[in-house]
Write a structure and sequence with these properties.
It is elongated, with a radius of gyration of 22 Å. A five-stranded parallel β-sheet has the order 9-8-7-10-11, with helices on both faces. It has a four-stranded parallel β-sheet with strand order 3-4-5-6. It has a two-stranded parallel ribbon with strand order 1-2. The mean pLDDT is 94. The protein has 343 residues and is of the alpha/beta class. It is built from 15 helices and eleven strands. The chain has helices at 25-34, 40-49, 59-64, 66-72, 83-86, 92-104, 113-121, 168-180, 199-212, 227-234, 257-264, 277-281, 294-306, 309-325, 328-342, and strands at 2-3, 18-19, 54-57, 76-79, 107-110, 129-131, 154-161, 185-192, 219-222, 239-242, 268-271. Strand 8, helix 9 and strand 9 (219-222) form a beta-alpha-beta unit. The longest helix is centred in the last third of the chain and has 17 residues, at 309-325.
Length: 343
């Protein structure tokens, strides 16, 4: 693994990794002298390990790896994940960059069929596209049915970046409508804004809408949590909310990974017919609601309140879907087979 930063090292003890500090004095001098050619110590390290396949993650990273591919002269795989295809892919300058990339790459990985179609639209040859979903480590996520009884408070959970494509404002609107219909509920809103343009404005809009609808008593704000802490909160919640939408700038989800993890834990979810979320739900696609539709979110909350047994039933169906179709061990085996074929 050749990477810019290294974190969570203890989780991957067998991984050989080399960090490229792009802001070191030596690298900055080299870039001035040699442009994008590989930094000599990196080139020496790469020669020593003799890689047989190059796998670049994210389209915009892959564009920066063109010179690395020239240096290695091995088959090249590029994985796309969301904004790199849906947002950048609509810009002419990035379409031109991707055209060069698509000529050189051996295989392009899409998270699902919707992303595969979009990659075709922006110029990737169909025969080079393979669908490779993100797998969930179902062996480390406990499966616990969410038992919800009549008269209890329906506990909802959202976790993610406060970004337009997450659709949080529609969840807030849906909650307000469900409360007016007599549903007793609360929402734990976990996350915050990051540094992407528009995030801060979206966070301010979320806080303002909560105040306008007088929802401070039922919406509890929490900062980003560790995965262990998030799981603890999830096992104390009944419904995960993922009302994703296509943002004004085209930014869209790939397959929200936290949604997959929550489904794997046996938790039902209110999610939208967006990007490749229908691929995640598979035969249970009928549980999805339309984008930007607060009424449909409210209707689902009312249904769960009036038919409490469906919370556990829907959760069981979604949990089985993830565990049967998106186990990380099966996904990794398929990726390993692809590496072998190319090598």
């Amino acid at each position: 693994m050749l990477c810019d930063t290294l974190a969570n090292r203890e989780e991957f003890p067998e991984l050989r990794a080399r960090v490229c500090d792009q802001w070191s004095i030596g690298r900055r001098i080299w870039r001035r002298l040699a442009g994008v050619r590989p930094f000599p110590p990196d080139a020496s390290w790469l020669r020593s390990i003799r890689p047989q396949v190059l796998h670049s993650h994210f389209g915009y990273v892959a564009h920066g790896d063109l010179s690395l591919h020239e240096h290695l002269e091995v088959p090249w795989i590029v994985g796309f994940y969301g904004a790199d295809v849906y947002q950048l892919g609509r810009l002419p300058e990035w379409q031109a960059r991707y055209a060069r990339l698509f000529e050189r790459v051996s295989t392009v990985l899409a998270l699902g069929p919707a992303m595969a179609r979009q990659l075709e639209i922006i110029g990737c040859p169909k025969e080079k596209i393979a669908i490779h979903p993100l797998g969930v480590d179902v062996g480390v996520i406990p499966y616990r049915p969410r038992n919800y009884g009549a008269g209890e408070t329906l506990k909802l959970l959202f976790a993610g970046t406060f970004r337009e494509k997450k659709g949080i404002l529609y969840a807030i609107e849906g909650i307000a409508k469900a409360l007016r219909s007599g549903v007793e509920l609360e929402l734990h809103l976990v996350g915050g804004a990051m540094n992407k343009p528009g995030d801060q404005e979206q966070e301010q809009a979320i806080f303002a809408r909560i105040r306008e609808l007088d929802l401070e008593r039922v919406i509890h704000l929490k900062p980003f949590l560790s995965f262990r802490e998030l799981l603890e909160l999830a096992f104390d919640s009944h419904v995960f909310v993922a009302p994703s939408v296509v943002a004004e700038d085209g930014d869209s989800e790939g397959t929200p990974f936290v949604l997959q993890q929550m489904m794997a834990s046996g938790m039902t979810a209110i999610a939208t017919s967006h990007s490749d979320i229908p691929f995640l739900f598979g035969e249970h696609e009928g549980l999805l609601v339309p984008e930007r539709d607060a009424d449909s979110i409210a209707e689902r909350l009312v249904r769960y309140s009036r038919e409490p047994e469906t919370v556990a039933e829907d959760g069981a169906r979604l949990g089985q879907r993830i565990r049967n179709a998106l186990d990380v061990r099966d996904c990794s085996a398929r990726l390993s087979d692809l590496y072998d074929r190319l090598a």
